[in-house]
Write a structure and sequence with these properties.
Layout (H helix, E strand, L loop, with lengths): L4 H8 L14 H8 L1 H43 L12 H11 L1 H18 L2 H19 L4 H17 L1 H9 L18
Length: about 190
């Protein structure tokens, strides 16, 4: 979880993503600072990180291992030891874990979020809503698996915690929106 796709992608462009925008290493900040292509690569890398961690946990310890790995990879993404414990908010990585533990629910929530973000241009609200929905719905679908119930609830709580400043801005009506038409150039970063 501590491997930060956003840091790697921005570093390849000679930019430290942690010094720009919201200073988050996640997909949304990469989009705002470096544009759509870098953001897409960051998103895919962070999702794959969650998928691979859960698959490894599943292989080693079954569903309990996948659930533990899901929590660990999201915590590692949010608080990476290699980067002074400053990472992303865990949304894409959480999606990756959900695609292993409940693929259908993960895909449905991704689709709803994508449509919501396209319409409103507000990423944070759909990030929060989709992961809280996962945390509320998945425990009823996982057939009483205690580890997966804990995983679902902890995941939702972690993402809400990571978005606490976004929640304050949402409540005050000052939350940032994505500008899909804006072109980012290196000149803008100086």
């Amino acid at each position: 979880g501590c491997i930060q796709t956003g840091v790697i992608i921005s570093g390849a462009q000679h930019v430290d993503i942690r010094a720009h925008g919201s200073k988050s290493t996640g997909t949304t900040n990469v989009f705002r600072v470096l544009g759509a292509r870098a953001s897409l690569v960051t998103f895919v890398g962070d999702v794959l990180k969650g998928v691979l961690a859960c698959l490894l946990g599943l292989w080693l310890l079954g569903n309990t291992g996948a659930s533990l790995a899901g929590i660990a990879v999201v915590l590692g993404h949010m608080y990476p030891v290699f980067y002074k414990f400053k990472g992303g908010k865990g949304v894409a990585t959480s999606l990756g874990t959900s695609l292993v533990l409940n693929p259908l629910l993960g895909l449905i929530l991704l689709a709803v979020s994508a449509v919501g973000i396209a319409i409103t241009h507000v990423v944070s609200i759909f990030s929060i809503v989709s992961l809280v929905a996962f945390g509320l719905i998945n425990p009823f679908l996982c057939k009483g698996d205690v580890a997966e119930i804990i995983y679902s609830i902890v995941l939702a709580l972690l993402v809400v915690w990571a978005h606490r400043t976004n929640i304050k801005r949402l409540l005050s009506g000052t939350e940032n929106k994505l500008d899909f038409s804006r072109k980012t150039t290196k000149r803008n970063l100086k």
